[in-house]
Structure to design on (141 residues):
């Protein structure tokens, strides 16, 4: 599959799965929860520290330099964790969909080329016939 074709397929998959919209909503939720935790928790002296905490939480790095101590902070942390797990599943499914579409497109191209040669079978020379025969043998393996 050509590079231009791959980009087109990727763009189509991202549009059909509404990936950009999903990512934007996720980032909005991430920043909103980070801000809410910053306002609720006394341990975060800056919004940047709250963002860092949420990044640690989402990536499960968990350095432990900051922790939520209030009930509301822990509830928000739990919500962000669960939501992030769902987002990871969406990213994974988008990548799998892209690869499935890419493989299907490649298969369609090969079949189309093969069918074209079959339609012109009487016109093909010995080398082209031998090539088709070899491809058929490889496909059966």
């Amino acid at each position: 599959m050509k590079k231009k074709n791959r980009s087109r397929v990727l763009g189509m998959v991202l549009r059909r799965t509404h990936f950009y919209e999903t990512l934007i909503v996720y980032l909005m939720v991430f920043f909103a929860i980070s801000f809410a935790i910053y306002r609720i928790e006394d341990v975060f002296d800056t919004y940047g520290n709250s963002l860092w905490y949420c990044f640690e939480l989402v990536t499960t790095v968990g350095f432990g330099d900051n922790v939520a101590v209030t009930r509301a902070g822990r509830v928000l942390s739990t919500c962000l964790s669960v939501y992030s797990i769902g987002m990871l599943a969406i990213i994974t499914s988008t990548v799998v969909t892209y690869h499935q579409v890419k493989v299907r497109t490649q298969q369609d191209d090969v079949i189309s080329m093969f069918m074209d040669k079959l339609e012109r079978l009487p016109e093909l020379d010995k080398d082209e016939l031998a090539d088709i025969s070899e491809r058929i043998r490889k496909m059966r393996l």
Observations:
- Helices lie at 3-16, 19-40, 47-59, 71-119, 126-140.
